[in-house]
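User: Please fill in residues for this 500-position structure.
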């Protein structure tokens, strides 16, 4: 919806990182410009709470939820759609993250999106690109988080190449400096591990592919502050200053002995691992100097949210790109989309569907035949696999899973179990959207330009009634036969379909 006088003028973003949780609140004026009015940061160390079996330890869960309880006080006045909350690497990999996310959503009163690494990279770049620190030309952006490191090359506001690597300040510190000790051999092994992680994708990010390197995130800003305070460099971060900091850490021998100006106590346990990763980045990508941005993922989230408010949604662009890349029949997709939207409008109030649901239904209609380029047989399964695993900028993992599940179920058997795999808040909505998609696809199974009549739709719980113009069904016996078969499919899913 456009920004106007009656629209909420405050938006917020929360980043549930592997090292820290961050919240940023901004005022949004009528032109869509953001002014930051509040920032909060808590060193939760969620990534440090991952057990050997890949589960969040109860203590880490408790720290995270206590932090979000405090954050929630700042969000109480903000309506749905004005807040975006994302989880990154630790919540991507933790086997019991669903329970944490459900508890956190109840505390915040807003949905939490678990985003893929490349989507995290896209949002990071968007935040950096809006900062005052950027210049013209191609740039490399590096973000070292708690559990992952993102590398992005872009120009202007557009990121071109994005990668997310499993190397971060928390994970590296936990692996190589777990007892707090810092030796030359430990640091050497940590740097080599970072270099080995970067090496397979390094050629795309080498120095001849960009004109300036920009770092962001808490780790890089902390290292910048230390090296400046020590007088090892005057601006940004140089490779020589990293080596001097490395030597200082080795000389200290243990994190408890670190006495460096500007270094906070909560940063000490993860500084050795973060430094090792950054040295690995500098050496592997042949970086001599890096400028530092004050903006990162949180700001990128806000700018992306403003784009959605003003109808420049990255998800819509991703759907168009995917449809073109997989040679989707655009005329058929448009026919199904139009009918799906008509059905949606009739279902909005009785099924309590919102604008986000409308977008998901539209995108699933546009992409329901994406699997045809693999094979006509079982193409709904191929399409679902593509959408579940594809790189779709703008989509969270939960949204992508819903989109893939709708495409899987748009024809033939209604697989109720597939919806049970979705996050709880999307299950009922997903089943209802699937009914609307199935009916829209059914109405256009003939794949012709013949006008489909306005079909009346009335709903009561799981009872679905379609009303066709007089004599239309008798003149379209194949559609009637399809509807009779659909009655059986929907009955097994708990819906009762009637038509006349």
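Assistant: Residues filled in for all 500 positions:
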């Amino acid at each position: 919806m456009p920004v106007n006088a009656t629209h909420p003028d405050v938006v917020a973003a929360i980043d549930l990182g592997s090292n820290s949780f961050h919240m940023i609140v901004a005022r949004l004026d009528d032109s869509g410009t953001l002014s930051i009015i509040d920032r909060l940061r808590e060193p939760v160390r969620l990534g440090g709470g991952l057990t050997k079996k890949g589960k969040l330890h109860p203590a880490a869960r408790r720290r995270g939820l206590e932090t979000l309880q405090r954050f929630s006080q700042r969000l109480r006045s903000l309506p749905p759609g004005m807040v975006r909350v994302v989880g990154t690497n630790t919540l991507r990999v933790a086997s019991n993250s669903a329970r944490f996310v459900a508890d956190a959503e109840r505390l915040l009163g807003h949905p939490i999106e678990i985003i893929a690494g490349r989507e995290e990279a896209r949002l990071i770049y968007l935040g950096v690109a809006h900062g005052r620190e950027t210049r013209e030309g191609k740039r490399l952006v590096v973000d070292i988080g708690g559990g992952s490191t993102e590398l992005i090359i872009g120009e202007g506001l557009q990121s071109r190449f994005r990668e997310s690597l499993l190397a971060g300040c928390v994970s590296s510190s936990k692996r190589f400096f777990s007892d707090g000790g810092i030796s030359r051999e430990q640091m050497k092994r940590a740097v080599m591990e970072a270099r080995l992680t970067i090496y397979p994708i390094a050629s795309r990010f080498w120095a001849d592919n960009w004109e300036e390197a920009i770092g962001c995130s808490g780790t890089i800003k902390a290292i910048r502050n230390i090296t400046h305070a020590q007088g090892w460099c005057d601006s940004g971060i140089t490779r020589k200053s990293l080596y001097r900091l490395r030597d200082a850490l080795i000389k200290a021998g243990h994190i408890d002995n670190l006495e460096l100006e500007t270094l906070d106590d909560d940063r000490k346990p993860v500084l050795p691992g973060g430094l090792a990763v950054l040295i690995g980045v500098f050496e592997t990508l042949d970086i001599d100097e890096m400028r530092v941005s004050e903006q990162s993922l949180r700001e990128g989230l806000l700018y992306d949210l403003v784009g959605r408010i003003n109808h420049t949604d990255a998800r819509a662009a991703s759907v168009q790109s995917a449809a073109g890349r997989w040679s989707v029949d655009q005329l058929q997709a448009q026919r199904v989309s139009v009918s799906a939207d008509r059905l949606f409008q009739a279902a909005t109030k009785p099924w309590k569907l919102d604008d986000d649901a409308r977008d998901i239904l539209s995108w699933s209609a546009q992409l329901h035949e994406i699997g045809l380029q693999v094979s006509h047989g079982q193409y709904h399964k191929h399409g679902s696999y593509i959408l579940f695993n594809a790189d779709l900028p703008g989509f969270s993992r939960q949204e992508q899973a819903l989109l893939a599940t709708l495409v899987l179920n748009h024809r033939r058997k209604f697989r109720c179990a597939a919806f049970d795999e979705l996050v709880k808040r999307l299950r009922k909505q997903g089943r209802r959207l699937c009914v609307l998609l199935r009916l829209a696809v059914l109405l256009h199974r003939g794949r012709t330009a013949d006008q489909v009549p306005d079909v009346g739709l009335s709903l009561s719980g799981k009872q679905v009634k379609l009303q066709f113009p007089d004599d239309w069904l008798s003149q379209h016996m194949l559609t009637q036969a399809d509807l009779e078969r659909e009655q059986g499919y929907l009955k097994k899913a708990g819906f009762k379909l009637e038509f006349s």
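For context: The CA atoms of residues 98 and 261 lie 40 Å apart.
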